[in-house]
Specification:
The complex is a heterodimer. Chain A has 19 helices and 8 strands. By secondary structure, chain A is mostly helical. Classes of the chains: A mainly alpha, B alpha/beta.
Chain lengths: ~425, ~160
C-alpha cells in the first residue's frame, strides 16, 4: 500500500479517504494484506464513467470510495447563461435513458416559476410520455442488471421492447433518443393518431412480452442467488442516505412523488406502488419489473381519458407562437423576437419542482431575478444521491457483487455528473 | 393547522431566541435564519415527532454576486409524514465562508455539501470526508461562482504528467 501512496499520479486525497474509512467487517481466514483496486472509469459494468477505488482483502471488499466527475459538463453553469427555452435540449442529456421525463420535469419547473397554465391535453400527453420513458428506462435497467450477472438473452429481449418505445417517440417528435418534445406552456406538436395507435398496440402486447422476459430469468437459480440478500439496505438507512424512486421502494418505504405530491393528473389515475421489504438487489429488480406493468395501467387510463383541445398555452408574453403565425402576423413576430432574444423573464422568486423520474426524484431548483436567464439552477439528480449508498452496500461483498449492486442501483452517469 | 402555522409554532416554541423569517411563495415554505443554529434546527426538524423531516433532498448555495451576504446556503427537506417540503436558508458572508455540516443529521448531505464546496467554496465544518466532488483535486477555482467565466480559465486544468 505504501508503494501506491508514494506514486505521484494517484491523487492522494481519494486514497487517504479510502484508507481512512473504518471497516467493521470481519472475515474468516483474513489474508491480512490488503490490496487497492481501481475499477473504472472505463469499465463496462459501471454503466458509464463511474470510478471506484476498492480496498480488498482477497476478494472481499473492505471499503469503497466512488469518484464522480468524469462526465461533468457543468450544466448548472450553462443553465445560468442561457434562456429557459435553450436549456430544454440539454435536459435530454441528463438521464439519457429517459429523456422525455427530463423534458417534462424541466418545463414543469419553469412553468411553476413563471405561473403558466398548461392545457389538459398537453398534460395528458406529458404524463403518457413520462410513463413510456419510465418503461424504457426500467427495461434497460432490468436488461443491464441481468447482463451484469451473466444472463445475456434478457438484455436482448428487453431491448427489443425498448426499441418499440423509441419508435413511438420517433413518430411523436421526430427523434428517437434526444427528444426535446416539450415546450414551455405545452408541447412541440400534438400526438398524431398513428402515434396513439402505435402506443395502443404496444401496451396490448407489452405485458405478455414482459412476462416472457421474466420467465427467462426469475426462476434461474444462479440469477436469484447472485442477487438475493446482496447489497441489503434497511428502510431507515435508505431514507437517511437519500434514496428515492425504485431503490427506496425496494427497501419497503411506500414513497412515490406521484402519490405524495401529485402533479399533472396523477391523482386521477388508479395505480399501485410496488413495494418490496427485503431491500436487496433482487427486491430492487422486482420493483422495476412491477413498475413497468403499473405504467402500462396508467397509459391505458390516459388513452381513455385524454381530452381533445389545445396543446400549448395561450400566453403570448411567455410562450413561443406557432411558426406559421410568425410569418404572417406582426404581433406574433414581435413576441417571437422578444422571447427568443430576451427570454421569458419570470417574476422574481424561487421554486423547487420535483417529479418522479424512472431513477428517483428529479428536482430543479430555480432562482429568478426577473431576467431571461435563471440566476441559479440546481439539478437534484437521483442517480448521484443513489450512488452515495454504494460504499455502504458493497462492504463485505465480493468484487463480482459490486457489479450486481451497481446494476441494481441503476445509475446514469450523465445525470450523476451533470 | 396548515404547514406554515405548524412549522412557525414549533420553531418559535423550541427556539425562542432565534429569529426566523418564514415566507410562503408559490405554496413553498422557506425558513430563513442565522447560520449558527443550522445543526440545532436541522436535528429538531428531523426528530420532532409531529414534523419528521427525515428526507433531505438537496443542499446547495446561491451566489448573489454583489450583495452584502454574498452566499445563501439552501436545504430542501421533505417530511414523509406530512407529505410536504420546506426550504431552509442561511446567509453566508464572503469573509467567513464556514457553515456547520449537517452530514451527521442527514447522511445524504455528505455528497451534497461536498458538491456545494466544489462549486461555491463554502466550507462545511465537521464534515466526515471533505473533498471536491466533481472537479479535480488540484483545481483552484469554484466554477459556479458568478466571477468564474463561462468559458473557463485557460490552464486551470493541468494535463496529467508524463511518465518518465
Amino acid at each position: 500500500m505504501e508503494k501506491i501512496t508514494s506514486r505521484e499520479e494517484v491523487p492522494t486525497k481519494i486514497l487517504q479517504a479510502l484508507l481512512n474509512q473504518e471497516t467493521d467487517i470481519t472475515i474468516e481466514d483474513a489474508l491480512e494484506n490488503e490490496m487497492i483496486l481501481n475499477m473504472g472509469p472505463q469499465h463496462p459494468a459501471t454503466h458509464g464513467v463511474l470510478r471506484l477505488l476498492l480496498r480488498l482483502d482477497g476478494e472481499t471488499v473492505m471499503a469503497c470510495v466512488p469518484e464522480l466527475g468524469y462526465l461533468h459538463r457543468g450544466y448548472e453553469k450553462m443553465a445560468e447563461n442561457m434562456s429557459y427555452y435553450e436549456f430544454i435540449p440539454h435536459t435530454d442529456r441528463l438521464d439519457y435513458l429517459a429523456p422525455m421525463a427530463n423534458n417534462v420535469a424541466w418545463v414543469m419547473a419553469v412553468e411553476k416559476l413563471a405561473g403558466i397554465e398548461v392545457p389538459p391535453r398537453a398534460q395528458y400527453i406529458r404524463m403518457m410520455v413520462s410513463e413510456l420513458a419510465r418503461i424504457a428506462s426500467h427495461l434497460l435497467a432490468v436488461g443491464a442488471l441481468t447482463m451484469d450477472v451473466g444472463a445475456l438473452t434478457v438484455f436482448l429481449w428487453t431491448l427489443r421492447e425498448r426499441e418499440k418505445i423509441l419508435d413511438i417517440w420517433d413518430i411523436l417528435c421526430g427523434a428517437r433518443f434526444t427528444n426535446s418534445y416539450t415546450r414551455i406552456g405545452g408541447l412541440a406538436n400534438d400526438a398524431q393518431p398513428e402515434a396513439l395507435a402505435k402506443i395502443k398496440w404496444f401496451i396490448e402486447q407489452f405485458e405478455e412480452n414482459m412476462d416472457e422476459c421474466e420467465r427467462l430469468i426469475n426462476t434461474n437459480r444462479i440469477f436469484v442467488e447472485r442477487l438475493d440478500s446482496v447489497g441489503v439496505i434497511s428502510a431507515e438507512d435508505a431514507i437517511q442516505i437519500g434514496f428515492t424512486g425504485p431503490n427506496l421502494r425496494g427497501s419497503g418505504v411506500e414513497f412515490d412523488l406521484r402519490r405524495a405530491t401529485p402533479y399533472m393528473f396523477y391523482n386521477e389515475m388508479d395505480f399501485k406502488i410496488p413495494v418490496y421489504k427485503e431491500g436487496d438487489c433482487l427486491a430492487r429488480y422486482f420493483v422495476r419489473c412491477d413498475e413497468t406493468r403499473e405504467s402500462i395501467k396508467i397509459i391505458r387510463q390516459i388513452l381513455d381519458k385524454m381530452p381533445q383541445g389545445e396543446i400549448i398555452a395561450n400566453n403570448p408574453k411567455r410562450v413561443l407562437p406557432k411558426k406559421a403565425e410568425i410569418y404572417s402576423k406582426m404581433e406574433e413576430l414581435i413576441h417571437d423576437f422578444m422571447i427568443v432574444n430576451f427570454g421569458i423573464s419570470p417574476p422574481v422568486g424561487e421554486v423547487y419542482s420535483a417529479v418522479e423520474n424512472p431513477k428517483g426524484e428529479l428536482g430543479f431548483y430555480l432562482v429568478s431575478k426577473g431576467e431571461g436567464n435563471p440566476w441559479k439552477c440546481k439539478i437534484r439528480s437521483p442517480s448521484m444521491v443513489n450512488l452515495q449508498a454504494l460504499p455502504m452496500l458493497v462492504k463485505g461483498h465480493m468484487i463480482s457483487d459490486v457489479v450486481a449492486i451497481i446494476g441494481s442501483l441503476d445509475p446514469v452517469m450523465g445525470e450523476a455528473d451533470k | 393547522m396548515d404547514l406554515k402555522e405548524l412549522v412557525t409554532y414549533k420553531l418559535k416554541e423550541k427556539f425562542p431566541e432565534v429569529e426566523f423569517d418564514i415566507t410562503d411563495y408559490k405554496e413553498q415554505l422557506a425558513v430563513t435564519f442565522g447560520k449558527k443554529n443550522i445543526v440545532n434546527v436541522a436535528s429538531f426538524l428531523k426528530d420532532d415527532p409531529d414534523l419528521q423531516f427525515k428526507l433531505c433532498e438537496d443542499v446547495t448555495a446561491i451566489d448573489w454576486a454583489r450583495r452584502k451576504n454574498r452566499f445563501t446556503v439552501v436545504y430542501h427537506i421533505f417530511s414523509l409524514k406530512l407529505n410536504s417540503r420546506i426550504r431552509l436558508k442561511s446567509d453566508v458572508d464572503e469573509s467567513d465562508l464556514s457553515v456547520d455540516s449537517v452530514a451527521f443529521v442527514w447522511k445524504t448531505a455528505d455528497w451534497h455539501e461536498r458538491e456545494t464546496y466544489d462549486m461555491y467554496g463554502i466550507i462545511f465544518n465537521n464534515h466526515p470526508d471533505f473533498r471536491r466532488m466533481y472537479m479535480p483535486e488540484e483545481f483552484e477555482y469554484y466554477p459556479l461562482r458568478k466571477d468564474f467565466p463561462l468559458m473557463g480559465i485557460p490552464g486551470s486544468l493541468p494535463l496529467p504528467k508524463k511518465d518518465e
